[in-house]
Model the fold of this input.
Amino acid sequence: MKREMIQGLNEKTDQELIEEVRAGHRASFSELVKRHQRGMLRLSMRFMKDLDTAQDVVQDAFIKSYEKLNMFEGRSSFKSWLYQITVNTARNKLRENRYDMTDIEDVQLSVAPIAEMKLVHVAVRDLIQVQVDRLPFKQKTALVLRVYEDMSFTEIAEVMQCPYDTAKANYRHALLKLKEIFETQDELKKWTEDVGGFFMELSTKYAEAE
Amino acid sequence: MKKAQPKKDFIIKQTLKKEDYLELPMDDSFYEKMHDQIMQAVEKSEMKTEPKWLKTRVFLEQKSQPYRMAYKKVVKVAVVSLVTAIAIGFLGASQRIYVAVEANRNLSNQNKIIQEAQRNPQRWAELAGNYQNENDFYAEVLSQKNDLATMVEIDKVLAQSL
Done:
């Protein structure tokens, strides 16, 4: 009986579950949490960097979404709405905690002359991450949603509560900033020469395009 | 340029994805625990009541959506038409003003010549004498406009003065 009920919940759409929650069935909200908690944790981690804090953000976001479920108008998807709440909660948390964004000057890249490729790679990965973190919040949000969450600009606009063109512009600006950094950072250049691959191609493509 | 754009985006996306640092727990028990914690917190929370006007507003907005799109198009077309009409109007008006100013200037020149000739016929005769023939004089004086009436008038004045 219970199994059938769980199976029934799995087959329902988000909107149907929302209607059930509104009618007083909290169990349906549990299914919504199961469906979206991984994605929300992933998104939250992009901003918070710490698993415990990211979990707090997800929990707060779910509580807010439950409290405001009656205000959900269904204009966007439930996922977009949840992500919108998650991004806003993360931003507020960052403001509260005054998280220091690591400054690029503080990043140590003391790689030995004959360093293993793996170590260089880790350093580059850190460097890229630092640069992504240094982007303004809106640009970073657009980039994270587009690159890591594979969202369309329409969905990004819904999450960011802004017009389609603004979402696109934020993403473009983020890409342009990263492009500049890729071209100017010595470590990235060096790594490009050592490893080849994407950055070289990226620079060539940008040069061709411009 | 435009064709290169999606390719560029794709490359940078792939680069960032490739260098993604994020490592999340894969263990199902972690997510079950997280789910339980969230649901415990949710149990303590209360859902806020739905605003009375919400459904009506959403319904009206959804209903008016196609009309709003059409309205936007109409407004766009109207604005473009208005700007074009104003531009054409300005162009026509400036041309008419230019023609009127020119005509007025010519007329006033002709009147001045006639008045001057009537006032001092002697001087005009001397002036006319500087030209080899009358036609040169007319051509000089009336270079602005070929007005037959004025030419006849001056001809008369000059005839009297000579």
